[in-house]
Amino acid sequence: MNIVTLLPFIVLIGAMFLMTRSAKKKQQAAAQMRNEMQPGTGVRTIGGMYATVKEVHDDTVLLEVAPGVHAVYAKNAIGAVLDDAEYNRIVHGEEAAAELDADTPVVPDDASSLTGPDDAPADDAPRIDLGKKPEADEPAADVEPKDKKSDEGDAK
Asked: 31 phi and psi, to 5 degrees?
């Protein structure tokens, strides 16, 4: 046999060996990452969901996907374990993560909590006349109520 005919097969076997070795290293690194998970860390599942680890078992992980909402996932479903800064940046946004770290005061969504009892108007404060006349409790005697049937009959 000629060496030229064997050369492509040798190259192919060598490439397969290198690819297999690299894939095994990635699998080992992922398994080590999953085994080092601790409760309280942020994770991303292989489906792209972000959650906080609550409990770690042999083959499963209890994740808190929202406050008070827990789900059991297989350990193999964890795609990445994130550090706290990255998890807060992704889940709460860059601005929210910066605000969590800063000592800036929190501004409420509405202004009702900004006013205190001293700011409330007094009951004996003078009223402003807006030109409206107070409506009487009873309808005026000179105005007759309209009858819908008579209006419709006139239109025909």
From this structure: -65, -40
